[in-house]
Amino acid sequence: MKASSTIENMNLEKRLGMKIRQWQLVSVVVGCLLLLGGCRAKTATGTPPKTAPTTFTRTVTWHTKTDRQNQEKLAHFIQKKMLTKQGIYTNFVDTKNRQTGVATGHELLSESAGMWLQYLAESHQYRAFRQFYRATVTTFDDSGQFSYRYDPRNKKRFAVNATLDDLRIIRALNLYDAQTKTNHYRQAAANHFAALKVGSLKAGKLYDYYDPQTKQAAKTTSLAYFDFKTLKYYEQGTRAGRRAYDEQLKVVHGGYLGNVFPLYASSFSWGDLTYATKNLNTSEALEVLLHLAEIGQLKATSRTWLAQQVRAHKLYNGYSTAGSVTNSGQSTANYALAAMVFATANDQANYRAAMRLVWEGQVTGNSPIQGGIGDAKTQQSYSYSNLTALNAAGM
User: Labelling 349: which of 164, 188, 357, 358 has CA 20 to 30 A away?
Assistant: First the structure.
């Protein structure tokens, strides 16, 4: 990204791109913070699907030699500067004071864990995968679902999960088995999915989060949380599951904002069956497009709009539901997400155009964050940006 907007980009990624949304915690009181090893509900047990998880593997890749080289530098930075025995730092720079609603500094997110597991499976680092998954369970597991956030300084974890982050970890476990042609994690993945069905995926309705201690779920869901490929894998085996999946698709399709601005509403309320009219976070909006692309349901209008923004270098961080720009900052993570959408849609030209913009955000000079995505001057480097770019580079 251009140097003049770098700090703004990093601040935006901190606020919006890391799945640490303050609105997600509106109904969660301070009492939701639990000491590691506190009381827990009974863990659910699931039945693995009968079909092998081959749907999670890719047969075509579009990355270039340059992408691979830059990915190696990025992975080296993450391994040496961000990765710990418990997880991955939210930011390279630690913070003195923690914030209730936003993860900062050296706090850890289950989101980052899932993205790193995905990378390890894709890059055939199976021993490292097994070690990191064990660490992920130790750090984040709570009654079979994963706490979305853990603070190693205070040894505290939030009681609520973030459903998309759980689905991402479940997907990574299945990807490992598909890549290795084993059943090593089939049961563990099924158990984690069963835990979601107890709370944040109850009766086929997907909710943003669930607290297993208070047994309270969110009243809304972000449309970005519908990881259709993973949902279909677990729901296709029964009539009730297929019906639930069809309803989930209807929820997302119903949020389409129209051909003039071909993105989707940010969230859906299960209480009054309405879509939010608030401004869009572009990272979440692109997650919706990616999940649709993965099941062959990305609209041509959406793909064309995204290509236009990438080609013009005008993919902004926020939009109104009418399509006007509400945040003119730009984020490396958003260009990485765009690249993933294009790769999934087999659009090589636009994938490479997006990846060229991704690498503009990589620090190449002598710096403590050399190889990472961030601001060399302030040394701000966020896990979401780094890991999104890392996984986009392997497509």
Answer: 164
Highest mean pLDDT range out of 22-31, 98-107, 174-183? Answer: 174-183
Helices (H), the chain: 6-16, 65-77, 110-122, 126-140, 163-180, 186-198, 228-235, 239-253, 282-294, 300-311, 332-344, 348-359, 383-392
As a whole number of angstroms, the distance between CA 392 and CA 317 comes to 18
pTM assigned to the model:
0.92
Distance from first CA to last CA of the chain, Å, rounded?
A: 21
Based on the number of CB atoms within 10 Å of its own CB, is 195 exposed (0-12), middle (13-18) or buried (19 or more)?
Answer: buried
Residue 23 pLDDT exceeds 70: no
The DSSP secondary-structure symbol of 153 reads T
Rounded Cα gap, residues 235 and 247, in angstroms: 12
Q: For residue range 229-261, what is the model confidence (pLDDT) as tens digits?
A: 999 999 999 999 999 999 999 999 999 999 999
Partners of 91 in beta bridges: 382
Residue of higher predicted confidence among 26 and 200 = 200
Number of separate helices (H) and strands (E) present in the chain: 13, 14
Domains of the chain by range and CATH? 3-392 (1.50.10.10)
Tokens representing residue 279 in the block: 């401004």
Percent of the chain scored above 70 by pLDDT? 89
Please name which of 18, 15, 30 lies closest in space to residue 160, comparing C-alpha atoms: 30
Q: Which helix (H) or strand (E) holds 141?
A: strand 141-142
Q: Is 119 helix (H, G, I), strand (E, B) or coil?
A: helix
Of 266, 256, 369, the C-alpha closest to 326 is 266
**Between residues 33 and 143, the one the model is more confident about:** 143
Which are the contacts of 319, defined by CB distance < 8 A and separation ≥ 6? 261, 263, 279, 280, 282, 285, 325, 326
